[in-house]
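Final report, section 2: Outcomes. Of the targets proposed, TRAP transporter small permease protein is the one most frequently requested by collaborating groups, and we therefore present its record in full.
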Amino acid sequence: MQALIALSRAIDKLNAFIGKYAIWLILASTLISAVNALVRKVFGVSSNGFLEIQWYLFAWSFLLAAGYTLLHREHVRIDVINSRLSKKTQVWIDIVGFGLFLTPLCLVIIYYTWPVLMQMYASKEMSGNPGGLIRWPVWLSIPIGVALLMLQGWSELIKRIAFLTGHGPDPMGKLVDVSAEQELAEVLRKEAQERDAKMLQAQAASEKTVPQV
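The predicted structure is given below as tokens.
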């Protein structure tokens, strides 16, 4: 079990590293978009290559960050029923989901994507748009991104099995690495609590100062 836990930690580190720097692809896409728009407005010149590189970079950023998103439990979940179940039942649902749904789906996507990617690479297929880009680099993001997602699914599966067997902490507990959005939400929650407390104190003080008739 310790070997599997070590594997899980290695996968977590891999996706944490990749996800941390995938954000720069979005910045690059934004800058390219801004420069392309400026050149088009000022000089009346544009290029389909600049337009396509934007969604190339977006595709890479979102697919590379899929495993990172799963690591931080940020994928959309419907917890109306799941949140009412016991901790053990929730863990078992995740085990079934990662083992019987996520893993086969990722394998199917990789299986059907890889031959198309190899065909594009061999034929040097180009975009149908004038001045467009070669196609295989953006298709390469699919098997790589899905493989990272599948690996993270295995990591989460190991964590839940370790929890059930008493070899690991609660996988549904608080994340150590808190995102900026979570930090902001926590700050706003504390500020709201402090504001409500001050309002209650002011209300209580005003009630004491009201003269009795």
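The helical segments are 2-43, 48-64, 66-71, 79-82, 87-123, 136-164, 180-209.
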